[in-house]
Amino acid sequence: MATQQELDDLKARELDAMCVNESELKHPWYYNLKYAVVGVVFGIVFIKAEIISWFRIQEMFRFQSFHMYGVIGTAVIVGAISVFLIKKLGIKTIHGEKITFADKEFNKGNIYGGLMFGFGWAITGACPGPLFAQLGSGVLSISIVILSAIAGTWTYGWLRDKLPH
Fold first, then answer.
1. Cα–Cα distance between 43 and 50 in angstroms, integer?
2. Max Cα separation, the chain?
3. Is the pLDDT of residue 21 over 60?
């Protein structure tokens, strides 16, 4: 059972967007190249599955196609099963570190953030996940969306203490 100090530390880390399972292990710079490789493969899968397509995203928001709902639903199901198995079996990281999940408190900021996220996705036709895959596939206009996402993230960090949490 975690102490109150550990729980307070965990809450502070979550607000500061630090990874709860942040590894204390230090690695050389090239150690992270495997993540770049996985990212490139993931981007190719996004492109081949047409989930970065503006037209597919518009079809979803107009309820004209099940394609994107199927992809998102599958991801939610796989994620839920994965979290269940990690908790149930006590699975650890590849370095043997314990994986922990913290309960999140609901607040009205979740509603505002979700609405802003959804409106941005509907207007731009781009979820933050595939932004770089879209850029890599030659959609250069998406760079405006990437810069806007960075500006929005910076603005949130700047205003975070004044926002409802």
1. 11
2. 51
3. no
CA distance 79 to 75: 6
Contact 18, 90 (CB under 8 A): no
Give CA–CA dist 54/109, Å, rounded: 28
- Rounded distance, CA 37 to CA 27, Å? 17
The pTM of the full predicted model, rounded to 2 decimals, is 0.63
pLDDT at residue 164 tops 90: no
Tokens of 21: 């399972």
Q: Show the tokens assigned to 3.
A: 């102490």
CB-count burial class (<10 Å; 0-12, 13-18, 19+) for 60:
buried
CB 56 within 8 Å of CB 126: no
- Kindly write down the DSSP assignment for every residue of the chain, as one continuous string: ---HHHHHHHHHHHHTT--TT-------GGGGHHHHHHHHHHHHHHHHTTTT-HHHHHHHHTT--SHHHHHHHHHHHHHHHHHHHHHHHT-B-TTSPBP--------HHHHHHHHHHHHHHHHHT--STTHHHHHHTT-TTHHHHHHHHHHHHHHHHHHGGGS--
Main-chain dihedrals φ then ψ at residue 164, nearest 5 degrees: -70, 120
How far apart (Å, rounded) are the C-alpha atoms in residues 165 and 162? 9
